[in-house]
Each structure stands twice: as structure tokens, then as C-alpha cells.
Amino acid sequence: MKWAFLPSLLLCPFLLSATVIPNSLFSDHVVLQRGITVPIWGTATSDESVTVTFAGQSVQTQAKDGKWMVKLKPLPVGGPYTLTIQGSNLVTISDVLVGDVWIASGQSNMERQLGPREGQKLIDNWEKERDAAHYPQIRQYALTKNYAPAPVQDTYHEWVVCSPETVPDFTAVGYFFARDLYENYKVPIGIILTAYGGSPAQNWMSREALEATPELKKLVEDYDKSLQYEPNTVSSLQKKMEPLWAKYRADSLQAVQEQKPLPKRPVQPYHMQQGYYVSGLYNGMLKPLIPFAIKGVIWYQGENNAHQAKLYQTMFPALIAQWRSEWQQGDFPFLFVQIAPFGMMPPEIREAQLISLKKTKNTAMVVTTDCGDAKDIHPTNKKPVGERLSRAAKALAYGEKLEYSGPIYESMQVKGDQIVLKFSHTGKGLASPDQPLKGFTIAGADQQFVPAQARIKGKTVIVSSDKVPNPVSIRYGWTQVPDVNLYNKEGLPASPFRTDMMDY
């Protein structure tokens, strides 16, 4: 990005404050979204005239209260172009492409880069993937982690062109997603990475959105109450938390070994000096991106809400609704990853994601029962995750007629001593890579679940057990680490589920 000052500025140093500055999203190597209106914005002295010129369009506006914004008409795929912004100075932005832009957000499994990361296992085949990453039309804009007490206007980062030298710092899931899309459509792909390891979903929502949802309002109220504590009081509370956390870890380990529900997680008080402001990631890592024109969102999060699975059924759809409302691009595709198998992830959080899928239109859920690691919350097999997200995008964002989801439980029917299960997203039919089917349990009215025999019949699954002559309920993959093998013939795994829907 180049800056040029007009002669009058050189003669009048006091006018240097009039410099027009675009938001850092609009910098060299940026990818702009094709096919829709493209907002471009920045700062300048109030009342300063600003003209943006790009790909045959020239749009003029006047700064107000130190800010300006113009909107370009829908653009076709193309580039590289040069974008210029003229005020009392001239800004030149080079190597601009027009293609598709995706937000990649969530917590550590989205944040995890392709290259090595201290304390974590290496991504599968990462060196081979790195060496083959000659994709100059794939770019990433990565935000630094930032909890903020109030909305931030700019994150001051830059776009990076994908190459073997740079791709180790790209989000692994996002890279595999982008690469698969690019290979199919040969359209420039921009990934905006805004992810924070260990972050709960509520920190990606605004305070106003949380307060507007009755079930979520208490999260804000509890946060506000915690602010009454002085730092030394918080310190003493933290000391009291240490034995509670130790007991929680011990009880959780025992629960996993005995295949029982996890205990309730201790609630630690928030405090502003600790950095965990309510809505802090919305303020620091999402708000600065709005209203940058996008194609959609890919999302990998939920581990840090595993102890709030019931609440997540409301929270996650509310998050999607808020993001869509603020971007004002309609119900853009929101594609998310179901939590992978891991010894500390209860089945209820996967159910909450499944319920969110069914409650929220134009969404897709990538199931990862075959991509997890029972002993590591950061599974290393990221390639199928990105490629399954890409497959969902092909259907929901690009209009391809293909099966994009694994089987999703729809209904059941009791027939004598058997239960017949029906699914959506059966594609060309149900399948199992290795017979017999596993992961099914069955119960009668006493709700005592026992292992069941299951077999595929057409596009249904028939489940039974000699121990349950009068079956009532079925569960599939209902454990922290599902050992399951139901797929459709497109090779996409079925989501874990239960038919009894107990409260928890």
C-alpha cells in the first residue's frame, strides 16, 4: 500500500491530520467479495472529500465525524487490480483480487495453524502440504487475539499470499477448506481468521444480543456482579477455586472411566483486570470486520461450552442470528464443525450443535466422529474437516446438487421388538465401512440402555436387543468418544443422537 501527499500538504504541515486512511482490511493483496455490494471504509478529517476508484468504478463521499464509507457495485471475478483512495492524500492498494471471502472463526481447532505449534502434535502430513501450497490466489488476513472492553474500529493487520513460505501460519482447517474450493472453482479465496483458543461462544456475541435473549441475560448479570470484587478479593477467590478445580478434574476422570456424565464445572468469577470482558471477542475480533463483504462463515467452536450444553442450544443459534443481522447480507451460509471425540467432551454438546443445525436455516454441520483423538482435544487430522466444510459450501453457497452432510436422525418407529430409524441426508444410501454397525444402544421404558444389534435396510437402520423385548429409545454414539461406523455412501459420517431427549 502506497501513500502520496498532494503539494498543498507539503506546504501546510498542519494539514497532515487530514490524511485519508483506509481500514487495514483494505491493504495490498486483499480479496474483495464478488457478486454483491462491497463497502470500503476508513478515517479522515471531517468533511474531507474521499474518492475510491476500482475496476472502472469511481465513488465519492464526504467524511463525517472522522469516518467515511463508500459502496462499490457488485464486481465480477478478476484481478489483480489496483484500488486507489483519493483525499488530500492518495492511497494506492496493489494486487487486489475479486473472488470469495470467508470468515473462519471459533476457538483453538480453527486457530490451529498448519505448521508446528508448541505443546501440540503436528498436523498430519503438514510438511508435504506446506511444500505443495503454491496458491497465490488464496490469501489470509489473521487477527491477533484481543479481548476488548468496547468495540474496536481497526485491527491493523495485513493480507498474506499463500505460498510454501507463508502457509505454515495459515489456519489448517481454513487452508484445506480454501484450497478445495479453489481447486474446484479457480476463484480467488480470502480467509479472514478470527479465532481464539479456549473462547466460549458468548464472548463472540455483543452485550446487547446477550441481554436481548432471556436465557443468556444471566451471563451478563453474573459478569456485572463479579465487577464489584476488588483485585485482592478476586485473588482470594481464585485461591478458593484451586481445590474446586482439582476435585472437578478428579471427578471428571472417574466419570470418563465409568462412562458417566461429567460433573458440573466450577464457575470462576470474571474480572476486568483478568481481560475476560463480557463480549470481549465480539468487541475486539468481530466488530472490526463488519461490514466487510463476505460469502459466509466457517466455525469450529464448542469445547469451551461443553459444560453449558443445554444453554448452547439457545446460544449458538442466537450467535448466528446476530452475526447475520449485523452483516446485513441476509442468511449467508454458516458452516460449522461438530465437536470431535475426546475424553472430556460430553455427548450433550454434540447434541446441542445438532439441535442448532435443525433450528437454523442455511447452516451445515460437519461431523468428525472419525477425525478425533480420545486423548487430545486438538486432533491432528484437519484435512477432512476442511474438505467437508468445503463440500457443504459447494451445496449451500455455490448451488451444487450434491450430498453435503452425513445421515441426520429424523424419526423412529417401534415394530414389535425392533426400532426402525429414519434419516435425512442418506444420499445414495446408508453404508458402513466395516460391518456390523456399532455404537447403538437401546432401552425400554426403564431407560436402562444396553448395547444393541443394528443393521442397514435400504435407507433405514433396524435396531434391537434380546435383552429389551419392548424397546422405547435408541442412542447412537452417546459417549465422550463415540466408536461408530454409520455413513452414507458419499462417505460422510452420521451424527450421534438420542431419541429420548432427556433434560440435563
Short description:
By secondary structure, the chain is of the alpha+beta class. The chain has helices at 7-11, 108-111, 126-131, 172-185, 207-212, 214-226, 231-257, 280-286, 309-327, 347-359, 383-396; strands spanning 2-5, 21-22, 31-33, 38-43, 49-54, 57-62, 67-72, 78-86, 89-106, 138-142, 159-161, 189-195, 296-300, 334-337, 363-366, 408-415, 418-424, 430-431, 440-443, 450-451, 453-457, 460-464, 473-476, 487-488, 497-498. Helices cover 25% and strands 26% of the residues.
Q: Pairing-aware structural class of the strands and helices? A: alpha+beta
Low-confidence stretches: 5-18
Mean pLDDT across the residues is 91
End-to-end separation in angstroms reads: 54 Å
Figure out the total of helices.
11
Shape: globular
DSSP strand content: 25-35%
Let me know the number of strands: 25
Helical percentage: 25-40%
Q: Note the main sheet.
A: 12 strands, mixed
Attribute tags:
504 residues; 12-stranded mixed β-sheet; 4-stranded antiparallel β-sheet; 25% helix; 26% strand; globular
Written description of the protein model:
The strands form 5 sheets. Strands 1, 3, 5, 6, 8, 9, 10, 11, 12, 13, 14 and 15 form a 12-stranded mixed beta sheet that branches. A 4-stranded antiparallel beta sheet has the order 16-17-22-21, with no helix packed on it. The chain has a 4-stranded antiparallel beta sheet with strand order 20-19-23-25. The chain has a domain at 408-498. Helix 4 (172-185) packs across helix 11 and helix 9 (309-327) runs parallel beside helix 10. It is built from 11 helices and 25 strands. Residues 5-18 have low confidence and may be disordered. The protein has helices at residues 7-11, 108-111, 126-131, 172-185, 207-212, 214-226, 231-257, 280-286, 309-327, 347-359, 383-396, and strands spanning 2-5, 21-22, 31-33, 38-43, 49-54, 57-62, 67-72, 78-86, 89-106, 138-142, 159-161, 189-195, 296-300, 334-337, 363-366, 408-415, 418-424, 430-431, 440-443, 450-451, 453-457, 460-464, 473-476, 487-488, 497-498. With 504 residues, it is of the alpha+beta class. The protein is globular.
